[in-house]
Amino acid sequence: MNVRRVVSADPATADSPGRHQDGMVGGYGNGASKERGLSWRPHEAGDGGRIGHTLLDTSRLRVHRSLRRARTMRLRIKRLSIRFYRRWILEGLLRRKPLPPSKDGRHIPLNPGAVRNEPLLDERSGKPYISNSVRSNRYTLLSFLPKQLVFQFGRLANTYFLIIGILQQINDWSPTGRYTTLGPLIAFVALIMAKEGYDDYRRYLLDREDNLALVSVLDLGGTSGEKPTAKPSTFLGKKFREKHLQREGERAMQEPGLEEEHGKRWTRIKWRDLGVGDIIRLERNERVPADIVLLHATGAHSVAYIDTMALDGETNLKSKQPSTLVASRCDTISKLENLSGELVCEDPNANLYQFEGSITINGETMPLTANEVVFRGSTIRNTSETIGVVINTGEECKIRMNANQHVRTKSPKINRFTNRIVLSLVFILFAITAGISGGYVLWQRDYESKNPFLAFAPVSGGAIIIGTIILINALIPLSLYIVIEFVKVFQAFHMNDIEMYDAETDTPVSINTNTILEDLGQVEYIFSDKTGTLTENNMQFRKLSVGGTSWLHTMNMARGDVEGKLHENFEKASPIDSSTENPDTDTEVPATALSDPESAGSPISRVGSGTESMLEYIRRSPNTAFSEKARQFLLCIALCHTCLPETSENGKITFQAASPDEVALVQAAQDMGYLLIDRPAQSIKLRVPGPSGEQVTETYEVLKVIEFSSSRKRMSIVVRMPDGRICVICKGADNVIMSRLRLSELAAKAAGEVGRKARERHSMEAEKAMQRKSMTTPRDSHGRRPSFFRSRSTRSSKDLRRSSRVGRQGDEEVRTLRSERMDTSDDDSDKDSDGVIDESIAADEAKVFGKCFKHVDEYATEGLRILLYGYRYISEEEYETWNMTFKSATTSLVDRQERIEKAAESIETDFELAGASAIEDKLQVGVPETIDKLRRANIKIWMLTGDKRETAINIARSANLAKSFSEIYLLDATVADPLDTMRSIFVDVEQGLISHSVLVIDGHTLSVVEGDRILSSMFFELAVRIDSVICCRASPSQKANLVKGIRDTNPSCVTLAIGDGANDIAMIQASHVGIGISGREGLQAARVADYAIAQFRFLQRLLLVHGHWLYLRTSKYILCTFWKEWVFYIIQAQYQGFTGYSGTSLYQSWSLTAYNAIFTSLPIFFLGLCEQDLSPETLLAVPELYTFGQRDEGINFKKCIAWLVMGTVDTIVVFVVVWAEFRYNLTGFADSGRFSDPSHDDSLFPMGTLALTIVIVLINVKIL
Fold this sequence. Notes:
The protein is elongated. The relative contact order is 0.10. It is built from 42 helices and 38 strands. The strands form 8 sheets. It has a 10-stranded mixed sheet, sandwiched between helices. It has a 9-stranded antiparallel sheet with strand order 20-19-31-30-28-27-26-25-24, with helices on both faces. About 45% of the residues lie in helices and about 15% in strands. The longest helix has about 40 residues, at about 55-95. Helix 30 links the parallel strand 33 and strand 34 (about 995-1000). By secondary structure, it is of the alpha+beta class.
């Protein structure tokens, strides 16, 4: 869908940004908005600021300011700590000072082979440039143990247990065994360290696979064969070494370049041995090992096609071309041997879209731009051979500088709350210790000092304090941290759900990290990539509009999909006249009636929208106005492109192009009879249907190709037809082609009328949505208050009734919108049915414009990618005159690009409208439904992509990220000041008059925002209020910064990032939960992600079902663990009053260990493993239940206090029962104080064993 900007003439919107015809709001500033000064807060912005003077708004602003001050303080402390670490640890202690910038860039001599003899020096450090080896693992053999010890005992709980374990080694002071704490702690820490070491070793193997890959390097002196290279480590195993030796041998046999040429050769070396200044050769489908500047490519005009999907996520192939200064001087080894010059380039940085440099040969200097540079992580496509010189290696490559260099270990959100509980229990422990110590002082004064047998054996205060701490130290349970690791292992095993298995790719769900499982139940933000994550990266030609009729292209669809699409068209169609009396007259003719006359009276004959029917009509009625327009349109599709046909051995023709859109268009033309069979130099050969239906081969001479660019938004081709006429064909965005039509004023009028009706329809839909939104119970701020004492069935039933009501409203919304679109259709909807040909319309340009632009609006609403085609025939004289101007522009040394675009403008005018095409970037199965359910679960979804803005918006519409009535705000720094734009958006959003808002920002604007602290703070404050955010043209580092920005703005939220490519790794690592899409193109992300799934649709079951269960299980496990330890050890504290506060243990030493290891471990274990409150069907049908985890209803301070109060009551009851039993039964004391039964045991163990037995029974019964 294309964005069409128009300035609003409505006075009510004079202070707002410019509104677009399809509900979009662009960044147009004006005088009124600039007069509002620098204040960006909604209550200070113009007339809308008066809304903020109410008491409620004032209170809310105070809360926001307090939270903002707290966040500012946290960020300031964080920056100070980072600054301290860098200055005193990295720079001071480790001597790792940042390199200063070079004076005028990096100077690299073009002296082939010299770098193999003597490495180049980096003038910033005076040392050789860094190696091309990359390292993603966090530890080395030497640093693993100290780093892990610091990390493990940097955790509060581990430090606490270490101190307790050390104190237990004092025999005279410890009332328990010496190793009851230290033994389990050492085993636990060793287990965690072993797991971390194994994970890091897997990362090391992946890095080593890249470092040991092979590349051809020019070695004129043969020094590479003499240079020793490290052998693969024996630790990798025999199979790993044999694998690389086999690859190297096979490549050497297939590589003709390895043969010597006049004593010179291309040599295969490992990636890690590459250095700056090396000249390398890459073949088709070979990965680029380092950042290089192109010297030569074997493609036409020395053009190399590069796949940069791993870098920026874009599926379009980039055309790279070496500088004209070196292209013809580097195609053979003999020429390379005589090459002499110097290359100057900028210092390494993370900017993927800009590059500055120059190249000098024989005193002649030419500039270098991003068009001559290929970055590491790219792949060579459609080019048999490419030669380049290395400019950046290893960690200084663009892709590595965009990756997270210091990845932090992830911990679940619930851990932060658990740590607060632990701190609280530590204070309670100290309070109990102080109370027992005070009790001993009183007991010593009142009793011990008055008894001679105790007066000479006093206990020191230190022994009392330390003994008491050791006695009840397990109030902070070590078992919580030990058993939960085993629980999470089994929880991860249970997540192998058959419903999340992709049979097509044989890919189950993969769990790489089991420490953050419960975070899956608390996600509030999802950051998603587009290509390969939401879409299948499979472009399909779906619809076309020609001659006032819309057609569905069914030749590349499965039968079920065809029937579904035709059924949709039938639903929106009105009854039509199906007569077929004379197809050459001005009557309406359903095309299916022609293809199947016997079905003319059936309903399906009224919706003959397939392109097969259109071709059949053209064959039967070739001389009508519609048929002539349709043939011209198909010819335009078959000619206006840059595709190259390739014929395989079996005769099948495939197409290679820089864009998958072009392949889809050429394949569609092939389906409809216009087959591209060859593209020799400056010509195109087509096989087209002849007048009698036979296939005829025609040759079209290509006179000129004017390439597509992001600024032009169009592509043109000048061809000489077989009859000698010269035709200019242009395709591009609808607003670009519309202004270049011969009847542009008439076209603008027709488009304006269509836009007016579309705005009316969208406003009606938005009004209905606002009414439904006002009737929906808010889920975030007015949710049901949690209660511990409410039974599980009551909670579930009430939540279910409330949430199902919301779910029914969501389903009703879909049905209502569908009916509204039918009700608000045009008055002439009876003539808009797909496949209904009206020759009177086809012959009337005004009516064709109206129908075509209406179809374009419908295609855009469906999220299809639209191109308009225009054409015109020109004379030989006009072409020659223009060609001289164009040649002069292409050879100009000053403002070349501007002159080329100006020359192209002169011929791209006065077009006839050929038609419109609509391409579907096919979504993965279930994406719209999944996004709808996630939105109902109160999860905000952001789409971060490297594709262009129009593509991103189209996918957002088809994926339900943006609705038909959504207000889309465009934040574009090239159009208006971002400050003014965001201030105006704040006014709209805060007024609450927007039913659904979407913010669109591009990578350039995002870099401007990130460079200003005020703009950055304002952007994230705005983003958290917007329903969805779309970021296009974003680099990997920008994706990660967006995730970090949301984490800083809302520290309590849980973020999830999902992607499939290497460009998504930084975003995945920066989020709380990272998910990789595997099975197709996503193995890079799946390797480093916390979890990997095969399809985006599995995300709803992963979060709504398993996430909910995992959060519930972990919450109950933590609460029950604290509760059972509280019950067990508070009885110990109560017992001290009867032992003179001496620290005597009520329980035997073996029972202290057996209590957690044997008697109560299984109930807690199975509670954390198998607890389910609701069925999967219920959780999926009512996504609103997911807010249970977002609102922290599973575990919070209220619940903790309730459990501890209940535990205290339990301890009192248990101790009273035990003491009564001991007092009146076990010891045999009678009321007179004499022994009634001296056979009763009056020792300590019966009392402790009884207490232990009651506690064990109580805990097992209550939990199970």
